[in-house]
Amino acid sequence: MINRYKQNAFIIIKQNIIPVMLVSTVLCLFTDGFGTALAPDFKGNLRILAYTITPADTSPEVFSALKTWAIVTTTVAVIWRIIGNGYYLEAIDYHTRLAKGQEGKASKVRLGRTRILEGLYYQLNYLLRIIGYSLLLIIPGIQKMFGYAMAPYIINREHLSAPEALSKSDLLMAGHKMDLFNLLMKFWKAAIVCAFLQMVPVLLMIKNLRNPAIVIISLVCSILASILSSLLAGWISIARSAFLLDIYDNHKGQSNHQS
């Protein structure tokens, strides 16, 4: 039964390959790529801001430039991730529409100030709860990660606050956490291929920077890895959306029947 979600999601991917790739690529940029590129050494930035690196270690001009760069890159990276939280909820909503067989245009993904603040509030609540439970020997935190998986869908469909959505998700996912884990494990082969393709450019270019052919091969592998990674992210998200929506609808149907 779990395989059904994976197979159906693959069919949807084939029918909407370009928009899915665009949405997933932008999501990856928001959550990891651009912010990380701007502030690649966050600890180094903190050291500069904390004056661990002092003017005595370098010239005042260089130190001042480093400090300015640390402030700018860290600020932009934080703002970028804040915007990304709102985009994450929109991307989830987009994949939900695809899972339900609705229109799959990437232009349907839109952002606004309310959406960004809603996403930020959700992410803060989510992280605080996961960190809190992870302090209890890690395992409870991992369980809650699966328990809270439905929260973004509940926020999008019922417009509940983040704490309410997280609590309701935990209740609805009771007895379904292992099923979700098994679904995600169905993608391990594709994940290994993407990880391998991402490692190839690095391994090739470490010792062959002066060889044009190797550099070109590395770039091709890097581009291919990025495309496959974005499609894999969309594939997993659509399959997960369909799975979680079935659980949500079943619980809703049972509640209506009881009432």
Structural descriptors:
single chain; 259 residues; mainly alpha; 81% helix; globular
Please give a structural write-up.
The protein has 259 residues and is mainly alpha-helical. The protein has one domain. 81% of the residues lie in helices and 0% in strands. It is built from eleven helices and no strands. The protein has helices spanning 2-15, 17-38, 42-49, 60-99, 113-134, 139-147, 151-158, 162-172, 177-185, 188-207, 212-258. Helix 2 packs across helix 11 (212-258). It is globular, with a radius of gyration of 21 Å. The protein starts with a helix and ends with a helix. The model is unreliable at 33-40 (pLDDT under 50).
Helices, strands, pairings?
Blueprint: H1 2-15, H2 17-38, H3 42-49, H4 60-99, H5 113-134, H6 139-147, H7 151-158, H8 162-172, H9 177-185, H10 188-207, H11 212-258
Helix pairs in contact: 1-11, 2-4, 2-11, 3-4, 4-5, 4-7, 4-11, 5-6, 7-8, 10-11
In brief:
The protein is mainly alpha-helical. It contains 11 helices and no strands. Helix 4 (60-99) packs across helix 7 (151-158) and helix 7 packs across helix 8 (162-172).
Radius of gyration: 21 Å
Major beta sheet summary: none
Order of helices and strands: HHHHHHHHHHH
**Total number of distinct structural domains:** 1
What distance separates the N and C termini? 29 Å
Protein structure class: mainly alpha
User: β content, as a range?
Assistant: under 5%
Report the average pLDDT across residues: 79
Shape: globular
Counting DSSP E segments of at least 2 residues, the number of strands comes to: 0
- Helix percentage range: over 70%
Low-confidence stretches: 33-40
Output the number of helix runs.
11
